Amino acid sequence: MDDSCNKLVCARNKSLFDLEDIITDILLRLPMKCLMLCKSVSKNWRRLISSPNFKRLQLLRSQENPSYVFYPYVCLCCSVLFLTKVHGETTETIPGCSRHWCKHMICSFNGLICSISYKSFFEKKVHMGIVIFNPITQEVLLLPQSRLSAEAPKIGVAFGSRMNGYKVFRFFNPSGKSQDKHHECEVYSSITGSWKGIGSVAYNPSSSQHICIDGTVYWFIKSVRNGLIIGSILAVDTEENFSVIGIPVEATLYPFLVSIEGCLSLVAKNVCDNRFDIWILQDSKEFIWVKKCTAYMHAFNIKEVNHVTALKNKILFASGRRYFFYNMCSKTWREFDWGRDFQKRVSSPLVYTESLLPCKF
Fold first, then answer.
1. pLDDT single digits (tens) 55-84
2. Cβ–Cβ < 8 Å for 48, 23
3. Which of 103, 198, 296, 350 is the most buried (most CB within 10 A)?
4. How far apart are the C-alpha atoms of 155 and 265, rounded to whole Å?
5. pTM of structure
6. Dihedral (C-alpha) 237, 55, 113, 69: value to the nearest 10 degrees?
7. Which residue in 330, 306, 325 sits closest to 314, CA to CA?
């Protein structure tokens, strides 16, 4: 196609438009399944859709319309992920990895999903396999084997909002004795494709449940002070700088980490009166937390809630087979209806945005 064919004349205003820009704008509006089929139309379309600029534009558009991703534990066939739009529409996708990996999803970022699996060696050492996969492109990346641990390692993924790679932080106990409090940390970079040890660390996350906001990863940590268990938050950025953030005393029992309005937030449940207190961190240096609102849940026992995630002005509370949305603006509750085909126990929901990004950078 020569240069003369690459220009389209608009008769109304006599201006010139690049034909490739017009095709790009049209392709960006297509559903992801249709977009993947369009790669087979021509070499030119395949080159266009596979270009870094198109992937960047597609990610930005997708981030405006996020959804949730679930995995059904009871599925006995091939691996299935439920990609669920906020308004309730549910679709299925089959990623290119086994159902064993899908079951242990721990985070979702820029269209990629991180899953983990544990293997014990002689009941003394634990090896964690970590997989990054893209349900849309069906690309799967098994990270290189890392060092063994005396207990289940804790991990977290740091990433930015654009196509600039990601880092996986892994906290582990190399001593061979689970009662040993010595922990180390190593970091995998998607740019180098390898692990790098950063030595001993003073803090070890309570679990692999974490969130990432603007390239900084947050986990809960616990310490004992004067015989009392004190909760706080461990923060690590992409430059591998560590810090600890204190949390309100009222939020130390049964809290969940979420991102609300782009800010680090806590959803703390009070089992005494079936309520949730929602806190937002306004100043990480001074540990200034502000209580945004309080929500009372009467639909089911608050003790059953085992996972909380936030999307825009709504918070999703997960409890095995039941899922409830709380709208912070209208202060109303709505139960998510799976329909008759999806009354199953599924994995903890993750906020998900479709993308064409590769697992390797």
1. 999 999 999 989 999 887 765 555 678 888
2. yes
3. 350
4. 20
5. 0.87
6. 120
7. 325
